[in-house]
Design a protein that fits this description.
The complex is a heterotrimer.
Chain A (H helix, E strand, L loop, with lengths): L21 H30 L2 H13 L1 H28 L6 H26 L1
Helix pairs in contact in A: 1-2, 1-3, 1-4, 3-4
Chain B lengths: L1 E6 L9 E6 L9 H11 L19 E4 L2 E4 L12 E4 L6 E3 L2 E2 L2 H9 L18 H5 L18 H5 L6 H12 L7 H8 L13 H5 L6 H16 L1
Helix pairs in contact in B: 5-8
Chain C lengths: L7 H28 L4 H8 L2 H29 L3 H26 L3
Helix pairs in contact in C: 1-3, 3-4
């Protein structure tokens, strides 16, 4: 048939043209939050060590937390932690067949995503 | 009714494009497939798409409808946002217009040995209780339309190594069949970081299945079977 | 217990480490709410107290195992050329190992 010599066939994969369900958004945020937490790991450990290294270190860390940049980064970290943990619990429950029906999965995806965002807002408020 | 349809004719088009159609529908045109046939009959018979049973059992006319996968023949026209955007199943190589290459999909299906394996001849029949037969419900009804695999991000990123929800659902159909004697081999084959374990429970598959099946849950059940068998 | 073959072992590690970390979080949160350490001395005493040591050590092990399985999954999904993928996996493994070494002094502090 004509056209086969032209090479590879195209694929439709323009993500902006697709309508994703809430579970997909929740799952993508689960991945993003996981990577964020992993990237923060050296920083988190560094801060933990510093805070336990003499009262000057403790004060230094407390000082960092009260800066604007510190608060923003802490909020990002706390959102990532909240969403990743909540979405993770959702996955653990689905592993043992709790909430793996479509309706239940949609509801839990909504709850996780909203709760994660709410906790981030709360954390930001508390830090401020 | 207004439509925006993905067109690609190899040999004529260098790149795919979207073509607008405005078609006058008859009162008897109820489903999306009817509208597509109307377009072919009255405006443009060069538009290519697969179809057969027109009642949602053959799985031929799976496509992306306004951003979600579905079967054209059982998607009602009423309630579709206009212009209705029609595109081929995401991630599959496009042969022409809305027709995609399903070769790899069917190779993957064959690779999981979709038949009962029991080389020992039975005395009379291979008996199965109603309860045992019940374990196939939600699995045997798959029509291999590929709406699920075409909406699975894990399948998009690794279509040649990840088996995808449709094939994995069928794998469970045979694992769960009490007449099959190859459960250990089936589970062993699936116990691979690509073949099954690319699935991370996104659940796009279950969202779009036109037969209301749940491939995501089926994959979870395979993981549980594996855990029981191998620990 | 015989070795679990295939990818199932990684999946189980990911799930079990997650479960342990969840339990430890409740444990640590509860302990923190009870003690409410304020100021450096109280904080240090609380963080390095005996009831926190072994669970904390296990938490760290669980954390790194969990992070490795998760990051490996990300790379397996998106990085297709084999040499590039192996290189990326090596980099991530090295980064995690280095970070773990950074944590070690804390875990074994007096």
């Amino acid at each position: 048939m004509a056209g086969h010599g032209n090479g590879r066939r195209p694929r439709f994969l323009n993500l902006f043209r697709l309508r994703f369900p809430v579970g997909a958004v929740c799952s993508f945020a689960h991945r993003v939050s996981g990577v964020v937490l992993a990237l923060f790991l050296p920083v988190t450990i560094g801060l933990l060590r510093r805070s336990l290294d003499g009262s000057s270190g403790y004060d230094a860390v407390a000082g960092m937390m009260s800066s604007v940049a510190g608060k923003l980064l802490a909020t990002l970290f706390l959102w990532a932690l909240a969403h990743h943990t909540l979405a993770g619990v959702r996955h653990l429950l689905m592993d043992v067949e709790l909430g793996s029906s479509l309706g239940a999965a949609r509801r839990s995806a909504w709850s996780v995503s909203v709760l994660g965002a709410a906790l981030a807002v709360l954390a930001f408020g508390a830090l401020w | 009714m207004k439509f925006l349809v993905y067109r690609f004719v190899p040999g004529r088009d260098a790149r795919p494009r979207m073509q607008r159609y405005e078609v006058a529908l008859e009162p008897r045109d109820r489903m999306l497939l009817d509208a597509l046939e109307r377009i072919r009959a009255t405006q443009d018979d060069s538009l290519a798409f697969r179809r057969s049973c027109r009642e949602g059992v053959c799985g031929s006319d799976g496509m992306n409808i306004n951003g979600r996968n579905g079967l054209a023949c059982i998607t009602p026209l009423a309630g579709l946002r206009e212009p209705v955007a029609l595109r081929p199943l995401p991630g599959f190589p496009v042969i022409r217009d809305l027709v995609v290459d399903m070769t790899r999909f069917f190779e993957q299906y064959r690779s999981i040995k979709p038949y009962v394996i029991d080389d020992a001849p039975p005395e009379r029949e291979r008996l199965q209780s109603p309860e045992e037969r019940g374990r196939l419900d939600g699995l045997y009804e798959c029509i291999l339309c590929a709406c699920c695999s075409g909406f699975c991000p894990s399948y998009w990123w690794n279509p040649d190594r990840f088996l995808g929800p449709a094939t994995l659902l069928q794998a469970l159909r045979f694992i769960a069949d009490s007449r099959d004697r190859a459960t250990a081999e089936r589970l062993d084959h699936l116990n691979d970081v690509y073949r099954l374990f690319r699935c991370r429970g996104i659940m796009n598959c279950t969202e779009v299945c036109p037969k209301n099946l749940n491939p995501a849950r089926a994959i979870e059940q395979i993981k549980l079977h594996m855990s029981k068998m191998l620990i | 217990m015989k070795a679990i073959p295939g990818a199932l072992s990684a999946w189980l590690v990911q799930r079990l480490s997650a479960l342990y970390m969840l339990l430890f979080t409740f444990y640590a949160l509860g302990a923190w709410l009870l003690a409410r350490p304020t100021g450096y001395d109280a904080w240090r005493a609380w963080a390095l107290a005996p009831p926190m040591r072994l669970p904390g050590l296990l938490f760290s092990a669980a954390l790194f195992a969990h992070a490795w399985v998760g990051l490996r999954d990300v790379l397996l999904d998106y990085v297709h050329p084999v040499p590039l993928r192996l290189g990326a996996l090596g980099l991530v493994a090295a980064a995690l190992a280095l970070t773990a070494f950074g944590l070690a002094p804390l875990l074994f502090a007096p």
